Amino acid sequence: MKVKIRSIIVATLILILFTVLPLASPMLIPQEFFNAFSIQAGIDFASLLNKVAMIGLAMGILVLLRGIVEKNSQAGLTLSIINKVFWFIIVLFIIGMGNIERFGLVVLGGSSGDNGATNIVTLDLRLIVYLVAIIITIMIVQSIFEYQESKHTPEPLNITHPRENSGNN
Amino acid sequence: MNKSQALKLSTRILIVFTILILVISLYSILSLIFSITSGTSNMNLDKNESTGDYMLSFSLNPRNNAFLDVSLFLEIKIFDLNKQVIATESKYVIIKPGGTQSLSLNLTIPSEFVPEGDLEKAQGYFQLTMSIKTLGDLIGLTQVMRIGSGGK
After folding, report:
1. Which of A72, A119, B37, B94 could make an SS bond with A109 (beta carbons 3.0 to 4.6 A apart)?
2. Domain residue ranges in chain A
3. Among chain B residues, CA nearest to A142
4. Which residues 75-134 of B have a C-beta within 8 angstroms of A?
């Protein structure tokens, strides 16, 4: 089983940036900052960092696997489709500010204080999510076409001249 | 051009189109927010001495400096402690690119909800909803602010 060196390097970088750093950041950044950010923006910062770490881990594994399998194989096609779906999840994660399930509807803020003070900001970016979904679907179809085309491309033949054959006989 | 090349080209065109839509829409929304926050807005509270009712008026003059039509929905609601609506008023306007639209909301708070005719003693909630949408209301931002009075 051959693993491309480039894939190992990229996977390691992804793991450091998106898994190790987010998990280590609570130790590097003061707790007050996390608390203030969570209250002001209504985002659970610790949970957000855990999600980033999970995404980083999955991305690293995907990069490694893509380095192992052959591009024109069935496993390569499956991995390519998984990779595209995974990128769609990342887009949902970024647009939804950590909430994939909201599907492009960002909700920030919350309630605080005894006087029932509430401030909720909702950003509706569902159109962008639908467009990204169309793009990902087209990319998946494109991968399938490329796979089919690679299967239909004839393999280079080992042609020998007839005289060489007759000479051998 | 084969099928996969055609799909590749259409994907690239769609990506550029999506990024353009995102940037232009966000710019339109943010420029209107900036216009509202930096422009002139007035909020007045007057008392009708004969009836004892309070009149709340809110006006603003937003300008659309962006390239797309932007719709603005503004609503003010006043609730009592049981979350029953005492007074409400809303306006919806569409502002053309480069255009300005004046907006005013007038609410009447009945005297029976104001104990001893003193608004300071009244208990309830004030809620302001502002919704800014663009691109045929497909992309937008909604803000709901609610504050309570009288220690509630």
Report:
1. A119
2. 5-153
3. B4
4. 125, 133
Distance in Å from the first CA to the final CA of chain B: 68
Euclidean distance between CA atoms A153 and B4, whole angstroms: 14
Domain boundaries, chain B: 3-149
| pLDDT given at position A169 | 43
Which residue in A has a C-alpha nearest to residue B135's C-alpha? A127
Buried b / exposed e across A48-61, counting CB within 10 Å, b at 16+? bbebbbebbbbbbe
- CA triple A89-A90-A94, angle to 5 deg: 120
Q: What share of chain A is helix, strand, coil (3-state, %, to 5)?
A: 70, 10, 20
**ipTM of this complex prediction, to 2 decimal places:** 0.83
Condensed to tens digits (0 to 9), the pLDDT of residues B2-59 reads 888 889 999 999 999 999 999 999 999 999 999 988 877 888 888 888 888 888 899 9
- Copy the structure tokens of residue B139: 């992309």
The two tokens of residue B48 are 């009708």
What span, in angstroms and rounded, lies between the C-alpha atoms of B18 and A78? 26
Question: Which class is domain B3-149?
Answer: mainly beta
* A&B contacts, CB < 8 Å: 80
Closest chain A C-alpha to B50 CA, distance in angstroms = 31
Nearest to A52 by CA among A11, A102, A8, A97: A97
